[in-house]
Write a structure and sequence with these properties.
By secondary structure, the protein is an alpha/beta fold. About 35% of the residues lie in helices and about 30% in strands. It has two domains: about 120 residues, Rossmann fold; about 180 residues, Dihydrodipicolinate Reductase, domain 2 (2-Layer Sandwich). Helix 7 crosses helix 9.
Length: about 325
């Protein structure tokens, strides 16, 4: 490609794009935001002006036709991820797709196949995985310092219940707490344990006031060796985002596991045999790191740490969680 910067196009003016991903790309070492598109051209132009983006388009198709764009970020509602990932691939654009990757594992597999067919890179936008603290946590686990892992507990909750018109309250658009934030502790447990869960049991509060979506869900994922992830996620509860890894000799606690400040040091705690220490990492922008890893994959051919098929596996677990919540039963997860 003969260039030092990955040129990004943004499909949509979602809040996550405006608040976090676009600034992250703009602050990255190897990314620039070239264009943004919206079905409302005035909105696209307004957002472009606000964020200093050179081009604005009144359709997603027009952005995909722009030869000055190498990769697209897709923050559209969940039910639109498959269509626009495939259309981007057909246009020869690399894709960073917002989580949850798709509506189900079957859609995810189609998206991966399309990108593979057209020779473009594909990644799911789990920004937290790119923060160096997770590499440090994996190092601590591998060292045996906290012993054998006995369990993981994750939380991600916030209260958006007053906004009843948000797409997250629409089942057809992929609404609900499991889709929106339950995917975080699920993906974190899979990453830290390095294997797939065997079964899911989830209990949820489906709110008639919010389109019948799950506004709160509590779950158990069974991994081999008697290890489990317990988690809860909510869009109608007090805010928190935490992760605890419990071992036979100690534990690791992350008070801000998935969303963290870009201005303050990242802190987590390690307790071994009653002795608690603080581990501190310098401030970073995990959205910038996510962008730079995509740039390395596209421009340098550097293998991505998280293969596209990881998104299919994560959706397979989410499918089981949703089925369990709706049927109030334990669901086995196929891993073949």
């Amino acid at each position: 490609m003969g260039q030092s910067k990955l040129r990004w196009g943004i499909l949509g003016c979602a809040g996550i794009a405006i608040r976090s991903v676009i600034p992250g790309i703009q602050q990255s070492q190897r990314g620039i935001v070239t264009a943004i598109a919206s079905r409302d051209e005035a909105k696209a132009k307004q957002t472009a002006e606000m964020l200093g983006i050179p081009k604005a388009y009144g359709s997603y198709e027009a952005l995909l036709a722009d030869d000055d764009i190498d990769a697209v970020y897709i923050p559209l509602p969940n039910n639109m991820h498959k269509e626009w990932t495939i259309r981007a691939a057909e246009a020869g654009k690399h894709v960073l797709c917002e989580k949850p990757f798709s509506m189900d594992a079957a859609e995810a597999a189609e998206m991966v196949a399309a990108c593979d067919k057209h020779g473009v890179k594909l990644a799911e936008a789990f920004m937290y995985r790119h923060h160096p603290r997770y590499a440090r946590i994996q190092e601590i686990i591998a060292s045996g310092e906290i012993g054998a892992i006995r369990g993981i507990h994750g939380t991600f909750t916030f209260n958006s219940s007053a906004n009843t018109t948000n797409f997250r309250n629409d089942q057809a658009m992929g609404g609900g707490a499991l889709y929106d934030i339950g995917v975080y502790p699920i993906s974190a447990a899979r990453m830290l344990l390095g294997r797939e869960p065997e079964a899911a049991t989830v209990h949820a509060f489906f709110s008639p006031e919010h389109g019948g979506v799950d506004m709160m869900a509590s779950g158990l994922l069974e991994f081999s060796g008697g290890v489990a992830l317990t988690f809860d996620c909510a869009m109608w509860a007090a805010g928190r985002n935490t992760l605890e890894v419990l071992g036979t000799e100690g534990r690791i606690e992350l008070p801000s596991a998935f969303v963290c400040s870009t201005d303050a040091p990242s802190v987590f705690y390690v307790t071994v045999k009653g002795n608690r220490r603080e581990e501190q990492l310098e401030p970073v922008n995990q959205y910038s790191l996510q962008s730079d890893e995509m740039a390395a994959a596209v421009l340098d051919g550097t293998p991505a740490r998280f293969a596209p098929n990881d998104a299919v596996l994560n959706m397979r677990v989410l499918d089981a969680c949703l089925e369990s919540a709706r049927t109030r039963s334990r669901i086995s997860i196929p891993n073949g």
